[in-house]
Write a structure and sequence with these properties.
Order of helices and strands: EHEEHEHEHHEHHHHE
CATH superfamily: NAD(P)-binding Rossmann-like Domain
Oligomer: single chain
Number of strands: 7
CATH architecture: 3-Layer(aba) Sandwich
Radius of gyration: 17 Å
Number of helices: 9
Mean pLDDT: 97
Strand content: 15-25%
Distance between the termini: 31 Å
Low-confidence stretches: none
Shape: globular
Strand order of the largest sheet: 3-2-1-4-5-6-7
Structural class: alpha/beta
């Protein structure tokens, strides 16, 4: 019997590692995002979509999943972080971009699943410790990930046959972390020093950690925020 998974944002890092791991585990992978890595071409069903262009998201998901009625897993992985800076110095348009990709695009995707009555066992929205710790410099990313946590809790009340969680997947050495966090001012933003000194996973290690905990996630109430480092 076919096992299907839908993943957003497989262009690099964690999303790419998740796609490759689920392929190895025998899943049919449906992916949505701006780009597909060369080594995943012709291996996954892919629909190009810039999640910031909200008006295109619903139709893109519909095109990708037109013949799919059942998904074992959905991983809402695509996310946007910009350069660390004080929220006072972060323009509204920059934070709106993060809200569009990190929150509203996911709302549109979840609405599609409800509208089309897609049978889904579990939805995992990739959140962050930034959604709860409020460290200096994380501006619209913290706000959007906190909103994502609540979005998932609210949808869990409406999607009663699906188990939903928002997941902080741990510290992962991705291009996003390297470009915007590890290069930031660790004096002004103390969390940067802590992150530099902390143990970090490769995307492949993080993907395996998620996969090994799939059953454990079900022991948390639907709608929960889970930090994988605490389970």
């Amino acid at each position: 019997m076919d096992k299907n998974i839908f993943i957003t944002g497989i262009g690099s890092g964690y999303g790419k590692a998740l796609a490759k791991l689920f392929l190895e585990k025998g899943y049919t992978v449906y992916a949505l995002g701006r780009k597909i890595p060369e080594d995943l071409k012709n291996k996954v069903f892919f629909q190009k979509c810039d999640l910031k262009a909200l008006e295109t998201v619903y139709k893109s998901v519909e095109n990708l999943l037109k013949d799919v009625k059942k998904l074992e897993f959905v991983i809402l992985n695509a996310g946007l972080l910009t350069e660390l800076k004080d929220i006072h110095d972060t323009p509204i348009y920059e934070m709106e971009d993060m809200m569009d990709i990190n929150v509203w695009a996911n709302k549109i995707i979840l609405d599609f699943f409800i509208d089309k009555k897609i049978n889904i066992d579990m939805i995992i929205a990739i959140s962050s410790g930034a959604s709860v710790n409020g460290n200096r410099g994380w501006h619209g990313y913290s706000i959007s990930k906190a909103a994502l946590n609540m979005l998932i809790k609210l949808y869990s009340r409406e999607m009663e046959k699906t188990h939903l969680i928002s997941l902080a997947p741990g510290l992962i050495l991705t291009p996003m972390l390297e470009n915007f966090v590890l290069s930031a001012d660790e004096i002004k933003f103390p969390s940067v020093k802590r992150i530099k000194e902390a143990k970090k996973m490769t995307p492949e290690e993080a993907a395996k950690l998620l996969f090994s905990n799939l059953e454990k996630f079900k022991s948390f109430p639907s709608g929960s925020y889970i930090d994988i480092r605490n389970i």
